[in-house]
Amino acid sequence: MTNGKRLAFIGGGNMAEALLRGILAATRLAPEQVIVTDVRADRLAYLRDTYGIETSGGNAEAAAQADTVLLAVKPQVVTGVLDDLRRVITERQLVISIAAGISTATIAEAFLRPVRVVRVMPNTPALVLEGMSALARGNLATPEDLATARGLFEAVGKVVVVDEVLMDAVTGLSGSGPAYVFLVIEALSDAGVKAGLPRDVATTLAAQTVRGAAKMVLETGKHPGELKDMVTSPGGTTIAGLHALEQGAVRAALINAVEAATRRSQELGRR
Ligand SMILES: NC(=O)c1ccc[n+]([C@@H]2O[C@H](COP(=O)([O-])OP(=O)(O)OC[C@H]3O[C@@H](n4cnc5c(N)ncnc54)[C@H](OP(=O)(O)O)[C@@H]3O)[C@@H](O)[C@H]2O)c1
Questions:
Q1: Cα–Cα separations (whole angstroms), residue 138 to 11, 102, 155, 164, 235
Q2: Which one of 164, 186, 215 terminates a domain?
């Protein structure tokens, strides 16, 4: 987003705060370029005091002064928020939505004028600036709009662009994925405790091992299978562990998990 442009967050909850923190820390925007709305006055006071941004209790009033309007409320309240914004959003503005399961078409149809919409599926590690966000372009959104959205979400992690039809798969993998990995870390920690390690040491070993392995995949660009082979010596400890994982059908379990979550996202989107 270029200098002088204004961004309005509609909803100042967890995800909005994570983004706000990242965007300000990366100096993508100055605090005076950002306005946040919420239904809770205490929340707005906290955000104002912590980040020096402007706040407002009025969604329409805040959106009217912004170049980019970022919908960061729960999917259940999106309809009400779109009603608030119906009359104030014009062709000159970009609407970005992070509401899970709400299509760009549903959002665009809510307005009186043709509006450019970009949909984003972030995930919770955005809270620690290691988020994974997938962007999808609505019908009227331009490459510049995608670049604007990319600039905002890169402040809290990595960004990919996908066709909107793939958003359910993104939800099943990176959206729900942190929970799968938390479960894996917890299980590894339990295993460490079973093998005699103190709990805190076991959890640190497990979490840092997951982080290190992920970083190797991302930074070397090597296939995960190749990286696995590099640490698997003939007749050694790792192949014994891998054999046990294959007996436990871990690959199939993870594929089933992503498939089930993708299907559930499709079902929720049809409601
Ligand atoms: N957290 C994630 O990992 C994640 C990942 C991907 C996508 N998302 C999406 O991000 C969106 C926000 O999630 P979140 O976890 O940040 O939710 P959240 O913490 O509940 O934040 C939403 C905020 O909006 C406020 N709000 C409710 N109604 C409003 C209205 N009419 N106008 C303005 N503000 C209103 C809420 O207040 P009350 O609490 O009083 O209702 C709350 O402070 C959701 O659509 C979710 O699907 C989240």
A1: 21, 12, 22, 8, 53
A2: 164
Q: What is the CATH number of the domain that holds 236?
A: 1.10.3730.10
Distance 202 CA to ligand 1 centre (A): 34
Q: Is 89 a member of any domain? A: yes
Please check whether residues 34 and 157 belong to one and the same domain: yes
User: Domain count of the chain?
Assistant: 2
Instruction: For residue range 134-154, list pLDDT tens digits in order.
Output: 999 999 999 999 999 999 999
Pocket test for ligand 1, best of 9, 73, 95, 268 (most atoms within 8 A of CB): 73
Q: What pLDDT score does 269 carry?
A: 81
AA letter at 60:
A
Question: What's the Cα-to-Cα distance from 95 to each of 35, 60, 71, 90, 140, rounded to whole Å?
Answer: 14, 13, 7, 10, 11
Q: 158 and 182: one domain? A: no
User: How far is ligand 1, taken at its centre, from the CA of residue 17, in Å?
Assistant: 10
Looking at residue 268, what is its pLDDT?
86
Kindly report the pTM of this predicted structure: 0.93
Are residues 231 and 113 part of one domain? no
How many of the other CB atoms lie within 10 Å of CB of 188? 17
Residue 1: what pLDDT?
63
3-state secondary structure of 248: coil
pLDDT below 50 — which residues of the chain?
Answer: none
